[in-house]
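note to self: dont lose this again. the chain is below, predicted strucutre after it. 159 aa total, dont forget to put it in the shared folder this time
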Amino acid sequence: MGVTNSIVIPHAFSAEYKGETWTADGVLSFTSNALSLVVFTPVSRLFTLTLDAERQVNLKTSVAGPRIPPEYLLMDIQLMYAPIDKLNQQLGAPYRVTSEGLERHIHFGNDLIVRIRYSTTNPFTSDISFSNLLRNYRYALIPHGNAAVSTTPSSPKGD
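---
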């Protein structure tokens, strides 16, 4: 039996996309083989977005919410939280991910296409400002308290 770490981050989430602005609360959760984002208002759940170990995307919407394509959200979450060396390895040329102080930059060739600003050096406890300069949209994520990290036993199959 192995061990699975999970990180759960409750946060306030706001976005601007194609002239539409919205604000909601959310819970972002990471495990070794899945990523999940649930975004909700006091009245209802807007959507649940998951990426599983087989890289299958599942989007469930409850009410009209943001029109941001789910593949954008998933990539953006990875750009915000994944280690820079892993991102550079996965993206490959002509993409390049760099870091300068509390900012992360994603370049396509010589062009800056994404700017991410963190309030602290730990992205899991940081306020995050994400701007996609190429597609002209942005997010702000503000954690409610600290991220919860838990360790749970996993089955030999990794379930």
